[in-house]
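RETRY 2/3 - previous attempt timed out on the joint model. Re-submitting the same 528-residue input unchanged.
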Amino acid sequence: MSTGLESFASPAGITAMYPFPGSETFLVIVLVAIWLIWHIWQIGHENRELRESQRKARESKG
Amino acid sequence: MDTDIGGLTTIFTEFYYWVTVVLMFLIHVGFCTYEVGASRRKNLQHTLMKNTMCIPLITVTFFLFGWWIYFALPNGPWINGPINEDAFTAAAVPWSEHMGTNMQDRINGVFWAAFLLFSWTTASIISGALIERVRTAGFLIIAVMVGSVTWILDAAWGWSAAGWMVQLMGYHDAYASGVVHGIAGGSALAVLAVLGPRIGRFAPDGTPRVVPPHNPWLITVGLFLIFTGFWGFYAACNIPIWDVDPVTEVTFFSATNIYFMPTTLSAITFNFILSLSGGLMMGYVVSKGDPFWSYSGGLAGIITASAGNDLYHPIQALIIGMAGVWVAYKLHHWVERRFKIDDVVGAAAVHGYAGTFGVIVAGFVLWGYPAAAPTGEPGIAWFGSTPEGFPAINPIGNILGAFIMWGVLGFLPAWVVAKILDAFGLLRVPREVEIAGLDTHASPDPYPEFALREPEFDRIQREGAN
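RETRY 2/3 succeeded.
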């Protein structure tokens, strides 16, 4: 069982060293998803915070 | 890597850029410190987190497409050739084996990170201008656009030996007066124009009101940190070891600027310190000893001279730095009064006006110097070539270049995106929240001992000044 390399002999011939070489495109798709989902989550979170802040500000005025 | 000298040169270059990354981190620490110092007590956490979160978002997007833009688009594309498809471009796509742990590529990650730190800086410059009323969501979208698209596109065009602006216009901007600072300042001004000033910032008769920072000493520490990190910024703009005699083919090693044209660490050390000193001196004079503008003057002095600091004499760098600070200071106050622009940290001036002015000055002062070795047929540059056929640095190329950096890639896209964000309610916090403070949702008061005394400007805001 090996996820990538089993020997560091002849390092001059080694290229990619990370586990699961060949999965790069899949990893990039995952990163795009993480990026976009983070923005969407952040916008929703900030909307909720701002609504709560508005409510508190109105209460303290009233 | 199969000879001692080859291995040493490779690993030295790798380590050199790695050190610049560590130093440039201090720029971001400085920006965060500065912005938090400039904020009022009720906005500290929002200010800090807004700027901090541009770090991961720009990192992710610069990995996904920013790095590819730099190598793929130096020709425009289609201004001086098609989209690049060379080995460097292939190594910069995010799914490349070179964008990861790879025994055959020792430099890609370090070089990527050095450029990434420029990206953070460019976006972070905008951040400070907008504090105390901008939404984090809106700022982060603008940060991604500037940090991972527009600035790196301008770097491909004007901060690469193969860039079409360098090859065809003789554009020269060695330490990024326009490439980083001009575009950031132009973008900041555009977003400010859409965002509007803080409530109460201008009196009903249009007179600007002073909004005292909560901690002026934190501002100065932040600017000192930016000065320190700027050393890494300068070193990262160089290539540390290169054979700089392509004409006679006699091997002669030196450091070079980003265009592979010769300079030395000694030159940029002289010029960095002298332009910093000139900027501090002029900032002190023009503001009559105001700490904020004296420190910002130091920064603006470096930024102004940066376009030509690979070649200037140190005293030239000092004088140019002084002139840039005068221009930036005067323009800042004129724009503030004329257009009601509330630029909290003076970013549009210190970076935008000083950087743009510096690019224009470099075109005159370095007129006739070789900009870069020609990548195609020699002697075809639009505004003149050297006797050896290299594109020559010239005033027209740098004036047009300054306009492209500040206006075409800076102001214009930022204004369009800010307008869209504003239309969707993502740019500015609601009025009640701005008056109450952006930290009111959850954060405890960081300085409860000051709670009994309401600052004058907070009172003006609360009482509904416009």
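Chain B has a mean pLDDT of 94. Closing ticket.
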